[in-house]
Design goal:
This protein has 367 residues and is of the alpha/beta class. It has 17 helices and eight strands. α12 runs antiparallel to α13. The mean pLDDT is 94.
Length: 367
């Protein structure tokens, strides 16, 4: 097979536009029970009620207690709870954690397994997800791209591990993007989710699995983000800036849906588990050092110019100081051995030894 051979597949229907939440009834079948997943914050602000009211209330079951980074055991309990509802469609409105929970339920509910995540990840029982409930994903942040990816993160703080539910059946059926839903996102969450989108785009570029399509999505994502992220942090009320950041996150999600992530994410997971580092920051604070390492391998051209622009933005954000608020450099280096997850780190296109990783970490937490 030629070294230039590649393939591309993403089955998610995407619709996007301001006010498009009102199109939700067009995306959900007219019959059958619907599970509507959201979070306490959106319920307090009235968004959950407004969105669920667009559907037939007699067949909608609302669960709004999902919190950031839901635990393995919590998701298994939710599977048991939802099985009695005879759900035929799932609608998820929220950030990456809500969308990931919906995708987990989408394959776990029809599996028939009791405590499926415990069985698969802790007890190592073999399982290939072979059916799904359709999921309509409505992101309320501009970051994870979970609305178009075939994997969902599951956190297990009991065993201090992060797992991934993945496969073709994990893709949502539809993604509905309405930038109006991101207008109330606070500064810090806007920043950290924006960093997540940038990290996804970068990780798909320095990736052994990159394709022509994934690279095009990633570069366009970065072109949007380097302009939109600083602008939206300064003008959070700008619907145009919010829309461009949401598109950047979507494109980055389309890119990693083909390549998966790489070394920055491998580094991030033990930091989020051990020190509570928000995911976007945990991925983002090493990006300047990684970009500097990667730039010399590129010929002059669009990719190199774009990455230099990204580096300027990241340097200005002073992410090292942000991360230093959660841990010391000594703390960071003590987790060195846990940061090389082959499922992610081996996707990195450049050679990376233990000493290289140590240098990246030291450069990333210098005030």
């Amino acid at each position: 097979m030629s070294e230039n051979s590649w393939s591309h597949h993403n089955p998610v229907k995407i619709i996007a536009g301001a006010g498009y939440l009102n199109k939700l009834p067009d995306l959900v079948p007219q019959a059958g029970s619907v599970l509507f997943l959201s979070s306490p914050g959106f319920t307090r602000r009235g968004v959950t009620k407004k969105a669920a009211a667009l559907l037939d209330p007699d067949r909608v079951h609302v669960y709004d207690q999902l919190r950031p980074n839901p635990e393995l055991e919590d998701l298994d309990r939710l599977v048991v709870f939802c099985r009695d509802l005879d759900v035929s469609h799932i609608v998820a409105l929220g950030g990456g954690s809500v969308l990931d929970a919906a995708k987990v339920l989408g394959v776990a509910l029809p599996s028939g397994m009791h405590n499926p995540l415990d069985l698969i990840f802790r007890q190592k029982q073999a399982q290939a997800w072979n059916s799904r409930l359709p999921v309509t994903a409505i992101p309320t942040t501009a970051g994870t791209g979970a609305e178009v990816t075939p994997f969902a993160t599951v956190w297990d703080r009991v065993s201090q591990k992060k797992y991934s539910v993945s496969g073709g059946y994990v893709y949502p059926a539809c993604a509905l993007l309405d930038p109006e839903l991101t207008l109330d996102l606070p500064f810090t969450e806007t920043l950290y989710t924006g960093l997540d989108a940038i990290s996804h785009a970068l990780e798909s570029l320095w990736n052994k699995n990159r394709t022509e399509v994934s690279a095009a999505c990633a570069l366009h994502s970065l072109d949007l983000a380097v302009r939109a992220l600083p602008a939206v942090l300064e003008h959070p009320e700008s619907l145009d800036c919010r829309s461009r950041m949401q598109t950047a996150a979507l494109l980055a999600g389309l890119a990693i849906s083909q390549t998966r992530t790489a070394i920055a994410h491998s580094i991030s997971y033990p930091l989020s588990i051990r020190f509570g580092l928000p995911h976007g920051l945990a991925c983002g604070f090493t990006l300047p050092a990684l970009i500097r390492r990667y730039l010399p391998s590129l010929e002059q051209g669009r990719e190199k110019i774009t990455l230099k622009s990204v580096l300027d933005i990241l340097d200005a954000l002073q992410l090292q100081s942000e991360a230093a608020g959660y841990m010391s450099q000594k703390d960071l280096l003590l987790l060195l051995a846990d940061m090389y997850d082959p499922d992610r780190a081996d996707n990195y296109r450049m050679d990376l030894g233990r000493d290289d990783l140590r240098e990246i970490l030291q450069a990333s937490l210098t005030r």
